[in-house]
């Protein structure tokens, strides 16, 4: 199960052609997964400092690199018109609908402004 402010579960997705992509191997840059082709097209026009992919169950044309989720594990978690945005350590910061590429950029700007050494775990300040 995918939860906000929790690391993504370590799962394996596929690239067209069958190459396996193990999500933990994508650490180091923020991660954006979308399931809507129009949002993928808008993001493809951006110079994102993130791994950005269109997530689908089967092969199809894509303006972003395509990741296949044939079992629908991550696809079921992302609503139509939505996105999953995770930090460079693959902690999920946003999972839900987005108004467009500008909102995805805003989430990425928030992640860029974060200082991992300065963030107090939520449980310590609640």
For the structure shown, list the relevant keywords.
alpha/beta, two-stranded antiparallel ribbon, 7 strands, globular
Q: What is the count of helical runs? A: 3
What is the average per-residue confidence, as pLDDT, rounded to a whole number? Answer: 90
- Largest sheet, order of strands side by side? 5-4-3-6-7
Detail the poorly predicted runs.
none
Quickly give the structural class.
Answer: alpha/beta
* Rg computed from alpha carbons, rounded to a whole number of angstroms: 14 Å
Overall 3D form? globular
The N- to C-terminal Cα distance equals: 24 Å
Task: State the order of secondary-structure elements, H for helix, E for strand.
Answer: EEEHEEEEHH
Largest beta-sheet details: 5 strands, mixed
Tell me what portion of residues adopts beta-strand conformation: 15-25%
E-strand count:
7
Helical amount: 10-25%
What does this structure look like?
This protein has three helices and seven strands; from the N terminus they run E-E-E-H-E-E-E-E-H-H. The longest helix is centred in the C-terminal third of the chain and has 13 residues, at 101-113. The chain has helices at 37-44, 101-113, 122-125; strands at residues 12-14, 20-22, 31-34, 51-56, 66-68, 82-86, 92-97. The chain is 20% helix and 24% strand. With 126 residues, it is of the alpha/beta class. It is globular and about 40 Å long.
What is the topological layout?
Elements: E1 12-14, E2 20-22, E3 31-34, H1 37-44, E4 51-56, E5 66-68, E6 82-86, E7 92-97, H2 101-113, H3 122-125
């Amino acid at each position: 199960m995918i939860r906000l402010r929790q690391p993504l579960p370590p799962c394996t997705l596929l690239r067209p052609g069958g190459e396996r992509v193990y999500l933990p191997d994508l650490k180091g840059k923020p991660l954006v997964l979308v399931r809507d082709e129009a949002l993928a097209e808008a993001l493809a026009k951006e110079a994102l400092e993130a791994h950005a992919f269109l997530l689908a169950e089967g092969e199809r044309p894509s303006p972003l690199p395509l990741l296949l989720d044939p079992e629908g594990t991550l696809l079921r978690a992302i609503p139509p018109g939505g996105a999953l945005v995770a930090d460079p350590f693959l902690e999920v910061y946003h999972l839900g609908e987005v108004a467009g590429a500008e909102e995805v950029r805003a989430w990425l700007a928030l992640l860029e402004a974060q200082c991992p050494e300065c963030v107090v775990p939520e449980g310590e300040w609640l």
